[in-house]
């Protein structure tokens, strides 16, 4: 697509309410810089998001149990259905101008599935695009959720890959309407999987899939409040 770098933001743990304005800020930035693109890589605190194809019926716990578990439920303007967010996942949200990629929204979703399959292949796993709902399966079970949005011609949200979360809680949520619990890279892999390595593979796959020659890595964004530990280091307080 371009010789410009893909700006990759490795943000660690990011509250979902902080993600929404950040995506808008990054989208605004890239629309002012032709040929540019970005990707946000993070994990979210425990909680449930419900996309356009989701239903409250796919969330089995009653409100009292959700409160006890500490699982807030958010309805979000993205494709896909219900997703349970847990530590041990990697969320990968490309922010890209679709017109410059010459992709329709449907073709873009197919590219997201394909890049997950590429990353799984690097982990010695055979992934398959789910024919019924955007996402990827390994050995018959969903391992990745794909739920994207396009606003003003720029992509938002993207995909969430289960690397090594606790799988037991998935019995309480029919992710993307599937009553079978999700699986993970670690559960399916014959060897130990490092989350940091999967993050790197996802960034590289986004760059390769969408034609970026270089990747510039950042560990924060000016649109985010400083993390407490980062502020402590900067001020000399602990």
Task: Walk me through what this model shows.
- It is a single chain.
- This protein is of the alpha/beta class.
- It has helices at 16-31, 63-69, 98-101, 105-122, 185-188, 195-209, 228-235, and strands spanning 2-13, 37-43, 47-50, 73-75, 82-85, 89-95, 128-129, 135-138, 141-151, 154-162, 212-218.
- The chain has an 8-stranded mixed β-sheet with strand order 7-8-9-10-6-2-1-11. The chain has a 3-stranded mixed β-sheet with strand order 4-3-5, with no helix packed on it.
- It is globular.
- It starts with a strand and ends with a helix.
Task: Please specify the SSE layout and strand pairing.
Blueprint lengths: L1 E12 L2 H16 L5 E7 L3 E4 L12 H7 L3 E3 L6 E4 L3 E7 L2 H4 L3 H18 L5 E2 L5 E4 L2 E11 L2 E9 L22 H4 L6 H15 L2 E7 L9 H8 L3
């Amino acid at each position: 697509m371009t010789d410009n770098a893909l700006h990759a933001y490795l943000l660690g743990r990011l509250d979902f309410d902080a993600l929404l304005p950040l995506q808008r800020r990054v989208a605004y930035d890239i629309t002012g810089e032709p040929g540019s693109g970005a990707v946000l890589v993070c994990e979210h605190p425990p909680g449930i998001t419900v996309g356009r194809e989701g239903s409250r019926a796919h969330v089995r716990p009653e409100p009292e149990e959700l409160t006890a578990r500490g699982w807030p439920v958010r309805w979000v303007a993205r494709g896909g259905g219900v997703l349970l967010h847990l530590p041990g996942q990697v969320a990968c949200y490309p922010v890209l101008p679709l017109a410059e990629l010459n992709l329709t929204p449907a073709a873009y979703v197919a590219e997201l599935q394909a890049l997950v399959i590429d990353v799984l292949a690097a982990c010695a796993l055979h992934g398959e695009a789910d024919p019924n709902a955007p996402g990827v399966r390994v050995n018959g079970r969903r391992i990745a959720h794909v739920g994207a949005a396009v606003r003003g011609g720029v992509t938002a949200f993207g995909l969430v890959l289960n690397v090594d979360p606790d799988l037991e809680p998935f019995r309480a949520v029919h992710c993307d309407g599937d009553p079978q619990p999700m699986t993970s890279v670690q559960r399916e892999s014959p060897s130990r999987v490092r989350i940091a390595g999967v993050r790197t593979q996802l960034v590289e796959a986004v760059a390769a899939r969408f034609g970026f020659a270089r990747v510039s890595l950042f560990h924060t964004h000016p649109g985010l409040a400083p993390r407490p530990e980062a502020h402590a280091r900067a001020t000399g307080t602990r």
